Each structure stands twice: as C-alpha cells, then as structure tokens.
Amino acid sequence: MLLLSNNNRLEELVKTMRDDVKKYLLDGTMTSIKMILNVPYSIGEITAKVPDYASLRAVKINLSGACKGSITIQGELPVYSFIGEGLFGMPVTGELLDSFIGEFANMLTGNIATLLSNHGLNTDISTPMIVTMDVEQYECPLTIPIKIENKGNLFITLVDPL
C-alpha cells in the first residue's frame, strides 16, 4: 500500500525504472518500515525531492542485480537513537550510534532485498556508507518522509542509477 495523495503523480515519479520493479521496491520499503520500526511514527506523502539539511546523518546502500540504484536513509541523530532504543531497550549513543545507523540501514535494505526476491527480483546490497548529501547527483528520486513521534524526521530516498 503506497501512501501518495495523487496516483497520477506516483506514475510520473516511477517512469525511469521499470514500473513493476519500482512498485515492488516502494512496496518492499513500506513493508520493511512496518517490520523494523517499533516506535510511534507516521509516513508522509512520497515526494521527488531529496532533503538537504545539514543536521541529517545520511547512510547509503547501493543496489545491484535485478533492482539497480541506491537507498539513502537520512535522519537526525536523536531519531536514530530513539529507533535504536525501541529495538534494543536502551538508548544508543556515541560510537554505538554511528554503528547502529549503518546496521539500521542494513536491516531495512536487507528486508527490502528479501521482499524483492519473493517477486523473482534477486537484488544484492552493498555495505552501508555514511555519506554527505549532494542533491545534484540524484536523478528521479522518490523520498518517503517519516515523522518519528516527538523526536524528528527520517527520510528514505530510493534512487535510479545515473
């Protein structure tokens, strides 16, 4: 189930990657979010804009195989810490927080790859890379904004390869 107020807009956003692959990728992302996030959250409208806020920590995982491109997760440090606390029962801070950000990306993207394989789309994922965001380098992004209740925002951006 995709959350987008205008279905015509979704069709416009998914034009470059094969439509069925992009739909499976979006659906897999939404399902993975539901599987992993056990803290209160709400999902906003999918957009074609990549957030460019200096306060966000970004981690990127490349996709190869049947589904090529990348997934970038951006969030504020307190958001990642809160998600970690929800998963592990204790606050995640300091060096553990940096490690957790990569592990969170692995968990999310690994679930997505598994869900894609259920549709015959065998997809490999790279190791997570902490990145600085350069909005200019992204072509046809789809960003899923997630508001983590009382903590801040998380953004998951799906990108076709250039």
TrEMBL record:
InterPro entries: CheC-like_sf (IPR028976), CheX-like (IPR038756), CheX-like_dom (IPR028051). Residues 59-140 form the Chemotaxis phosphatase CheX-like domain. Keywords: Chemotaxis. It holds the Pfam family CheX. PANTHER family: CHEY-P PHOSPHATASE CHEX (PTHR39452:SF1). This is Chemotaxis protein CheX. It comes from Metabacillus malikii.
